[in-house]
């Protein structure tokens, strides 16, 4: 059940203060508002809830049974909110605060830079360390406590023990070549076997999906094959050769948009996989990490990648 959007923090603060003071007048003095304003706010809250929360008499104000029940939730909610605000403030003013973020190739060039800019805007006190590498390496660093978060494709099931994953969007694999490559105008998918292939190695998150696609399409394994997840190598090698690069679409999205690389017109919906946030499941993230994760989500929304 969703919370009624008409209920505001001022309703809860006023209700809790009146209950604590047992007086509308004293509550108004402590909140620096008039007694009629306090009474109006209480009346609004009771109207929204459809229940009488307080009884007013000559000795002051007392809670009804429903009011006593609601008071327990209202007071704990305000206390939790105060703790959250204080936690953010204390964390951000602490000197030398730093987050270590693991970024898989599919997000390192497109998501992480914009998220880092956003983080610098909302929390400039927090330093960021960005670590890239294959999925298996980053997962081991996260499990060992060296990393606070991984952004990228969902890891292999056997490596996700003790970790949690929150999906941001789905991403497919692309086959990309240099501009002017013979395959750009070729509709025969099996012709790929006539060229060098840059293929994700065994540590890559997309390795299994790529293997399954090649098997399902009956593409023979021919020619020279280079296995790597080094996007800098792949980008440079493809531009100066006729190699076909098997890579997550996010890694080369900017290159394709700028005309530096060309994506082959081959539909690969079966290679769609979840991209998201992976973190340890041993507790709540720190306020600073929460801020960074929110910056990532806003970046994904701004780039129209959300599912």
TrEMBL record:
One of its GO terms (cellular component) is cytosol. The keyword Transcription applies. Gene3D superfamilies: Periplasmic binding protein-like II, Winged helix-like DNA-binding domain superfamily/Winged helix DNA-binding domain. Keywords: DNA-binding, Transcription, Transcription regulation. The gene is pcaQ. Belongs to the LysR transcriptional regulatory family. It comes from the Bacteria. NCBIfam families: TF_pcaQ. GO terms for molecular function: DNA binding; DNA-binding transcription factor activity. This is Pca operon transcription factor PcaQ. PANTHER family: HTH-TYPE TRANSCRIPTIONAL REGULATOR YBHD, NITROGEN ASSIMILATION TRANSCRIPTIONAL ACTIVATOR-RELATED. GO terms for biological process: 3,4-dihydroxybenzoate catabolic process; positive regulation of DNA-templated transcription. Residues 7-64 form the HTH lysR-type domain.
